[in-house]
Amino acid sequence: MMRTRPFALVAAVTAAGLLAACSGGTNATGGNSSSTLIIASQDQGSVEGVVKAFEKANPGVDVRLTTSSADQYQQQIRTKLASGTGPDVMSVWPGNGNPAATYTLAKPGYLLDLSDRPWAAKLPEAVKKVSQYQGKTYNGVFGLNGIGAVYNQDALHKAGLTAPGTWSELLDFCRDATAKGTPAFALGIQDNWVTQIVLYALVATTVYGPDPDFDKKMQAGQATFAKSPWTTAMAKYQQMYKAGCFQKNPLGTSYEASQELAATGKTLGIIQGNWIIALLKGKNPSGKFTLSTLPATDTPAKFLMPGAAGTGYGVNAKAKNKDLALKFVDFVMSPQGMNLFVKAQGGLPTLSDTGFTPDPSLTELSAFVNDGRTVPFMDQLWPNPKVQQTMLSGLQEIFSAQSTPDKVLQAMDADYKAGS
Question: Is pTM beyond 0.90 here?
């Protein structure tokens, strides 16, 4: 895995409702005529605008959209596909990091080959790599994302504090914030996918800074999680917790509740992907939020940021309305669709010719991307989804004092060695 332009994604947005793409669920009733399109998405808050624009551009088309949380979606989509009740179009993560990722769904034949679509050949090489399986493209990845510290600027001003620029300053910042009665960061790890976000932000600098070829060494059997700077990142995660960087009871706080804390200034910010900025603005339209790299050392010049392709959309190989499904994914990947999506999510488009102007809150992310100072989200090239699932559950167990970082990393190593 090279230090390069961003690719791969594990990011997710919490939504309500069950994944019932073809039988029940949000607007998912009745059969599937030539003008009806069934979409199942883990996204909420940005896909709706794209759907409306698609329907407007295609009079007479009826899109039946179902959204659900990432955890819920990943648990159910394969069952739907295996039973023949899957949607026409579905959210698909890049790479191989979870049960709804490109490799995982393409390998058993659940996804339609999109290699001949007009946008497929235009994808940047790094994005293309995690949108393909065995050289064929299966995922329409429209946006690039980054992970860092998202600060509520009004809350910072009210507290009289400034965002930290080094690891030492970060720990002081957390202690000062706690002393003022406003914790530094909201953390909602009741949703287990959230547990990885802070860790990934720390791993980017601590692991890939000194060793940009770490993933290649893992793949060659020359490195392990348990005997690498992953232990350093794990220790720093715990240091942050002990320094009071998060609100009380992170395990009892949901992703949705953590958004509320950061949006309303009950914390000074939140460590998350840039996709959360749009959600925070939805809860606090007048708020000002900015994304910055999370300091992991005292050498800012060597900071790296996790940057990756976001969740895209694939087409069910057995879609009941294949032509309309392809038309929707092509719309998502068009300048109009791509810009609508990334503007709503607060991201960057995967293609450079869309005419998109990034939101000012993403200035630092854009700079890191342009300077080649990003590393992929860590899971996308792992050999199977089990590695990530072990990490997520293990991190929750660490926070509840039921496990230790060493045990979790050793378990991740065992799953990694098991291969695909």
Answer: no
Inside any domain, residue 370? no
Cβ–Cβ under 8 Å, residues 316 and 89: yes
Residues 174, 220, single domain; the answer is: yes
Contact call for residues 226 and 413 (beta carbons, < 8 A): yes
Residue that has been written with the tokens 């709804």 in this structure? 100
In a shared domain, residues 151 and 274: yes
Rounded alpha-carbon distances, angstroms, from residue 408 to 31, 112, 246, 403, 419: 46, 36, 22, 7, 17
Cα–Cα distance measured from residue 240 to residue 250, given in angstroms and rounded to the nearest whole number: 13
CB 5 within 8 A of CB 126: yes
Residues 242 and 324 in one domain: no
Q: Give 253-286 pLDDT, tens digit per residue.
A: 999 999 999 999 999 999 999 989 988 999 999 9
Buried b (16+ CB within 10 A) or exposed e, 67-88: bbbbbbbbebbbebbeeeebbb
Helices (H), 166-312: 167-179, 195-206, 214-219, 230-242, 255-263, 276-283
Helices in 58-137 by DSSP H: which ranges? 70-82, 102-106, 125-131
Banded pLDDT at 126 (limits 50, 70, 90): confident
Number of domains, the chain: 2
pLDDT tens digits for range 192-242: 999 999 999 999 999 999 999 999 999 999 999 999 999 999 999 999 999
Report how far residue 373's alpha carbon sits from residue 209's, in angstroms, rounded to the nearest whole number. 9
- Residue pair 210/204 in contact (Cβ under 8 Å)? The answer is no
